[in-house]
C-alpha cells in the first residue's frame, strides 16, 4: 500500500456519536500500521479530557477543544507523518478549517441514520463519554429534566452538518466495520498518490 510519508497527511473521521467512526478509524489505523505507515491516532474524546478535565460541552468549549485538536494534528502533519483524527466535528466549518490549514487533508464522513447511532450508543459503557448520551438527551427534550454533565448532544440538540466536500463517505448503517475499513483503504490508496 502506498502512503504519502514524505508529506504529512490527515484523515478526519467524523459523524454522529455511535456512527461507528472510532471502530472504523481504529481498523484503518491498524491496517495502515501493518503496512508500515507511521500514523498517529488522535481521539477527540480522550483529547477533550486532557484539554478540559471536567468538560461542559458548551459551544465555546467545543470550539476551543476543536481548535486545540486541529493544532495537534497540524503539528503531526508538519513532522511529515500521518494522523488519523477521530472526532464528531459536527460543524462543517470545523472540517473546512482543517482542509484550509492542512495541505494533505481528507474528511472521512461516517454517515449513519440517527436510529442506528442511538441503538449502538445504548450499549456503550461509561468511559470517556457519558453512557446513555442519546437516551438522556431525548429524556431532557421530553421532560425538561436535567442530566448533570450532559451538554448539547449532536443529533438531538444540535444537528450534524454534512459537508458536500467530504472526500470519502461511508454508510456505516449498511456495511460491517471490515467493509467500511476496506472502503476507506481503497479511497486512501487513490488519494495518497495524488
TrEMBL record:
Listed GO cellular component terms?
cytoplasm
What residue stretches are annotated with the APS kinase domain? 7-170
Q: Which organism is it from?
A: Desulfonatronum thiosulfatophilum
GO MF assignments: kinase activity; sulfate adenylyltransferase (ATP) activity
GO BP of this protein: sulfate assimilation via adenylyl sulfate reduction; sulfate assimilation, phosphoadenylyl sulfate reduction by phosphoadenylyl-sulfate reductase (thioredoxin)
- Name the keywords, alphabetized: Kinase, Transferase
* Cited Pfam families: APS_kinase
Q: What is this protein called?
A: Adenylylsulfate kinase
Does Chaperone count among this protein's keywords?
Answer: no
**Database matches in InterPro entries:** APS_kinase_dom, P-loop_NTPase, Sulf_AdTrans/APS_kinase
Amino acid at each position: 500500500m502506498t502512503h504519502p510519508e514524505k508529506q504529512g497527511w490527515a484523515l478526519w473521521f467524523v459523524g454522529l456519536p455511535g456512527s461507528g467512526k472510532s471502530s472504523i478509524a481504529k481498523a484503518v489505523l491498524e491496517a495502515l500500521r501493518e503496512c508500515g505507515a507511521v500514523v498517529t491516532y488522535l481521539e477527540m474524546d480522550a483529547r477533550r479530557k486532557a484539554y478540559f478535565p471536567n468538560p461542559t460541552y458548551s459551544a465555546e468549549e467545543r470550539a476551543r477543544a476543536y481548535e486545540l485538536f486541529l493544532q495537534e494534528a497540524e503539528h503531526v502533519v508538519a513532522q511529515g507523518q500521518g494522523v488519523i483524527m477521530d472526532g464528531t466535528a459536527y460543524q462543517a466549518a470545523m472540517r473546512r478549517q482543517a482542509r484550509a490549514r492542512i495541505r494533505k487533508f481528507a474528511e472521512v464522513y461516517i454517515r449513519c441514520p440517527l436510529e442506528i447511532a442511538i441503538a449502538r450508543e445504548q450499549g456503550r459503557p461509561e468511559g470517556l463519554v457519558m453512557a446513555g448520551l442519546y437516551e438522556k438527551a431525548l429524556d431532557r427534550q421530553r421532560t425538561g429534566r436535567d442530566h448533570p454533565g450532559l451538554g448539547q448532544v449532536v443529533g438531538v440538540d444540535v444537528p450534524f452538518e454534512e459537508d458536500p466536500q467530504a472526500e470519502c463517505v461511508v454508510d456505516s448503517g449498511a456495511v460491517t466495520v471490515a467493509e467500511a475499513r476496506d472502503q476507506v483503504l481503497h479511497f486512501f490508496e487513490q488519494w495518497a498518490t495524488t
